[in-house]
Amino acid sequence: MTSLSGKVAIVTGGGRGIGRAVCLKLASKGAKVLVNDLDEQPANDVAAEIKSHGGDALPFPGSVTEADFGDRFVQTALSNFNDIHIIVNNAGYTADALIHKMSDDVFDAMYNVHLKAPFHILRAAGQYIREAAKQEAQHEQEVFRKVVNISSVAGLGGNAGQANYASMKAGVVGLTKTLSKEWGRFKVNVNCVAFGYIETRLTAAVDDKETIEVEGGRTVQIGVPRENIKAIEAMIPLGRGGTPQEAADGVYLFCSPESNYISGQVITVGGGMSF
C-alpha cells in the first residue's frame, strides 16, 4: 500500500502548473483526486493522465469564485468517492499594480479567488467533516484529514505592487491557524505552504508582455521579464527557481501520515528564500 491509499483529495486549480503537479503527486501515492480547473480541457487532461497510470480521478471544471462552487465541489467528491480526506486550496493568479493605481475590482478579484473561495470550500466541507469525525470516534476509528492552504512569500513579507495578492495570502495564513484550532478535535491537520519563486506559465521568463483570460473574461498579464528573474534568483540561497514538482512535494508533506501531529504551521517552499 502507498501512503495515501483509500484517501480522497480535492484540489483547486489542478489543471496546470503547481496544481497539476499536486494532483499527480497525490494520485501517485494512492489518493483518488477530484481535479478542479477554471478551464475544462486541462481538468480533463489531468484526470485522464491519472487514470492512464492506474489511478482514480474525476475532472471538475469551473470557477472557484462562483457562489455555490464550494458546496458543489464538496458534494461531487462525496457523491463519487464517498469521503473527503485532503483539501488543497491552490487556485489563483496575480493582478499587480501599485496601490495608487489599483482599482477596487482588481483588489476584490484577489480577495474572491485567494481568500473567499477557500473559505467557501472549507465551510462546505466542515459540515461533513464534523459528522464524519463524530461517527468515527464512536466506532473508535482514528481517521486524520488534511487541509493544505496555499500562501506565498508575498503573504509573509509583502511585495511591491501586490497589495491585493499579498493581503489575501496573509489572510490565508490567518484562516489556516484559526481552522487548526477549530478542527483539531476532529483530527484535521490544517497547514499552509508559502511558495517562493516557482517556475510555471504565470512566472515564466518572457521578453514581451503576455496575457491570459481568467474568470469573468478578465485579462491579466503573465510572465516575468528575464532581468527580473535574474534578480529574484540572486535572492534565493539555492540559486534557482523551484519546479512545480518540488512545489507539490511541499504540499505532500502536509498530506502524508507523517504530518498527523503537525497543525497550524506555515512552511516556505522557496529554496531558502525568506523575508
SSE string, helices as H and strands as E:
EHEHEHEHEHHEEEEEHHE
Oligomerization: single chain
Shape: globular
Largest sheet, strands/sense/barrel: 7 strands, parallel
CATH fold category name: Rossmann fold
Beta-strand residue percentage: 15-25%
What is the CATH-assigned architecture?
3-Layer(aba) Sandwich
* Uncertain parts: none
Assigned CATH superfamily: NAD(P)-binding Rossmann-like Domain
Number of domains: 1
What's the total count of β strands?
11
Any idea what the radius of gyration is?
A: 18 Å
- Number of helical stretches of at least 4 residues: 8
How would you state the average pLDDT, rounded?
A: 94
- Strand order of the main beta sheet, please? 3-2-1-4-5-6-11
The helix/strand class is: alpha/beta
Could you give the distance between the termini? 40 Å
The CATH C-level class name: Alpha Beta
Provide a brief overview of the structure.
The protein has 275 residues and is of the alpha/beta class. The chain has helices spanning 17-28, 40-52, 69-81, 104-138, 153-157, 163-183, 226-234, 244-255, and strands at residues 8-11, 32-37, 57-61, 86-89, 145-152, 188-195, 205-206, 210-213, 219-222, 224-225, 266-269. Helices cover 44% and strands 19% of the residues.
What does this structure look like?
- This protein has 275 residues and is α/β, with parallel strands linked by helices.
- The chain is 44% helix and 19% strand.
- The chain has one domain: Rossmann fold (3-Layer(aba) Sandwich), CATH 3.40.50.720.
- The radius of gyration is 18 Å and the shape is globular.
- The protein starts with 7 loop residues before the first strand and ends in a 6-residue tail after the last strand.
- The model has no long low-confidence stretch (mean pLDDT 94).
